[in-house]
């Protein structure tokens, strides 16, 4: 178990961690199984966007990398909770995993905010602000977000994060009641890391909804579809992040003794588990905000379908044109009314009935 000095003893509270042994493993396994392949696919499509000189791809790649880093830390957290909150590794690994857990929240919020602003400028101001919608500008903003959050996470390296409770368990990244230095960083997290970005995000999506409503050329069913997607995006965002930050402020304001810490422990950690679903929701949000994703998915689907149905035909060729990703990525800025979704193309060539003499109908 290792030697624990007196300075590293957390003798203030002994809290029942049952939620960690029941609910946490289920959520961690679910996020691992679903989130890892989904984010790998999202990273691939983000790469296609970058290759097409689309600034949106830069934000998507950074968002996905942050999610994948957190997902890679989940096996350590899973081992931790399955061992009844007894950290089997060193203090450094605890700090790294804790930073990946908490800072992923604010890195994700930052890039989701960037994506929403980018989509707002594309929809509401398609002929303006081109200097802000470039790959170079997106790369610069991404560097700022990563540096800001890494500097914020560096404060945890100044304090010991593996402490020992009264049951002789080595708990990781848990201090009850909350300590004075944590209150300062938590206020920073709430105001700079969450409240300010969420205001920008909601302003951007509100602007998108207004632009869609003002458009006279868009059919009502298309408007309704766009509105549902935007509202779904905001609801998912709030469900993942709002409960945790509300309870973070509650802890900061009123957690001054062990009894309060015990009373809020379960609901606080449930809200923290909700933030993990962000890693599953991000690839879904990517499909919501990117016009080209559906085209890429259609190509992949058509290729697989075509291979299965047409592989037996000698000399068969693709019967559907592949539009240039670069052209499709940049033309949206020049459209008077950029769309948030595109219809999927019909799958594969349709073979002609026998005896008709036809060679098939192109998709």
Automatic annotation (TrEMBL):
One of its GO terms (cellular component) is plasma membrane. It is a multi-pass membrane protein. The keyword Transmembrane applies. Residues 315-363 are annotated as: Disordered. GO terms for molecular function: G protein-coupled receptor activity. One of its GO terms (biological process) is response to fluid shear stress. Residues 329-342 have a biased composition (Basic and acidic residues). Residues 38-286 form the G-protein coupled receptors family 1 profile domain. The keyword Calcium does not apply. The chain crosses the membrane at residues 26-47, 59-78, 98-117, 137-157, 187-208, 229-247, 267-289. Keywords: Cell membrane, Disulfide bond, G-protein coupled receptor, Glycoprotein, Membrane, Receptor, Transducer, Transmembrane, Transmembrane helix. Signal peptide: none annotated. It is found in: Cell membrane. PROSITE patterns: G_PROTEIN_RECEP_F1_1, G_PROTEIN_RECEP_F1_2. Belongs to the G-protein coupled receptor 1 family. This is G protein-coupled receptor 68. The gene is GPR68.
């Amino acid at each position: 178990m290792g030697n624990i000095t007196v300075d590293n003893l957390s003798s203030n509270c002994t809290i029942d961690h049952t939620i960690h042994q029941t609910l946490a493993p289920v959520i961690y396994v679910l996020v691992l199984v679903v989130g890892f392949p989904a984010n790998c696919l999202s990273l691939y499509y983000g790469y296609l966007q970058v290759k097409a000189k689309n600034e949106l791809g830069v934000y998507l790649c950074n968002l996905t990398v942050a999610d994948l880093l957190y997902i890679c830390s989940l096996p350590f957290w899973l081992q931790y909770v399955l061992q009844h909150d007894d950290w089997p590794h060193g203090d450094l690994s605890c700090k790294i995993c804790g930073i990946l857990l908490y800072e992923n929240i604010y890195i994700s919020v930052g890039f989701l905010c960037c994506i929403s602003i980018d989509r707002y400028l594309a929809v509401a101001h398609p002929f303006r602000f081109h200097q802000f919608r470039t790959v170079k500008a997106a790369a610069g903003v991404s560097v700022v977000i990563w540096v800001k959050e890494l500097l914020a996470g560096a404060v945890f390296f100044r304090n010991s994060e593996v402490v020992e409770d009264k049951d002789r368990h080595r708990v990781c990244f848990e201090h009850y009641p909350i300590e004075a230095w944590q209150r300062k960083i938590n206020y920073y997290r709430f105001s700079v890391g969450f409240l300010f970005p969420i205001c920008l995000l909601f302003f951007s999506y509100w602007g998108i909804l207004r632009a869609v409503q003002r458009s006279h050329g868009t059919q009502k069913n298309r408007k309704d579809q766009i509105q549902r997607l935007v509202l779904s995006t905001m609801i998912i965002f709030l469900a993942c992040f709002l409960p945790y930050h509300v309870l973070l402020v509650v802890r900061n304001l009123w957690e001054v003794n062990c009894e309060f810490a015990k009373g809020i422990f379960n609901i606080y950690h449930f809200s923290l588990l909700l933030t993990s679903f962000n890693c599953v929701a991000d690839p879904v949000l990517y499909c919501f905000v990117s016009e080209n994703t559906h085209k890429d998915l259609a190509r992949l689907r058509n290729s697989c379908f075509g291979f299965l149905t047409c592989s037996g035909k000698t000399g068969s060729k693709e019967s559907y044109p592949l539009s240039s990703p670069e052209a499709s990525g940049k033309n949206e800025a020049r459209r008077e009314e950029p769309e948030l979704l595109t219809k999927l193309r019909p799958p594969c060539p349709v073979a002609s009935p026998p005896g008709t003499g036809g060679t098939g109908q192109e998709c």
